[in-house]
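Milestone 3.1: sequence recovery, worked example.
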């Protein structure tokens, strides 16, 4: 689950506790699968159905559903049902700030659409 943003008054830097380090590691696991990263990139444009995501990513709907379940469990995405369709969206736009930094660090480029 994505932790709530906690502000520590008077501290620009902090020395993280072991529990905070575990929390960060748990959060980063959401990025540990290329399909999940592609799903998050696809959802940057807004809410989409499983079928739309599968088509954009080029993966089977069953795989997309499995990865969406993990992203939901980690608190990255939420779902909304409309009749027989389920639509997914990113819960917090701050996810894309994190992704931007990771892409720049690893690939030397940012996310498109910025």
């Amino acid at each position: 689950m994505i932790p709530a943003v906690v502000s520590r008054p008077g501290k620009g830097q902090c020395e993280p506790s072991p529990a905070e380090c575990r929390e960060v590691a748990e959060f980063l696991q959401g990025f540990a699968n290329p399909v999940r990263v592609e799903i998050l990139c696809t959802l940057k444009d807004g809410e989409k159905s499983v079928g739309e995501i599968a088509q954009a990513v080029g993966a089977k709907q069953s795989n997309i559903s499995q990865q969406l379940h993990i992203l939901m469990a980690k608190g990255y995405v939420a779902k909304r049902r409309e009749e027989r369709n389920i639509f997914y969206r990113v819960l917090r736009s701050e996810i894309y700030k994190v992704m931007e930094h990771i892409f720049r660090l690893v690939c030397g480029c940012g996310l498109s659409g910025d």
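Residues 94-107 form the longest helix (14 residues). DSSP finds five helices and three strands in the chain.
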